[in-house]
Known about the structure:
Elements: E1 6-9, H1 16-27, H2 32-48, H3 50-53, E2 56-62, E3 65-74, E4 81-89, H4 98-112, E5 117-123, H5 129-137, E6 141-151, E7 154-161
Parallel strand pairs: 4-5
Antiparallel strand pairs: 1-2, 2-3, 3-4, 5-7, 6-7
Amino acid sequence: MNNSDVSFRCIPEPADLLHIRDILVSTGFFFDYEIDVAGELLDDCLKKGEKKSGFYFLFAEQNSSVCAFSCYGPTPCTSGSYDLYWIAVHGDKRGKGIGKLLFNETCKKIKQAGGRKIFIETASREQYKPTRNFYITCGCTEEARIADFYDLGDDKVIFSILPGK
């Protein structure tokens, strides 16, 4: 695995709206309305800026092409808690270590911003088992599970990690 050619960019650009959509569609994991929400978060960030929107983006690029992104931000009404709203790698690049590099870089950015703990939500559906395993291999701990949150039989699983880990 040689990911020395992966670089990171934290300043979003309007073209990233298409990159995010392409990445999320390529995974086969997300409903159309979920993909729309990711675009709305980026649009809010582009219009208002990171601080006012509360949404920060990090893009992984390989060979001058966006191949993954994360979206995170401070959790409202908390001191030092952050939410990792999105992390996704293009379907063609999955399983090559880019997600872990992006996750670690995102944690580093959160720590630099004063974050003390990161919370991540995902679904319990079988389709999301690789996602849950990804978080576990990144050092995250399952903090809570809310039964039937997304739908009957589809729990909300909440992970956390200290950004310095």
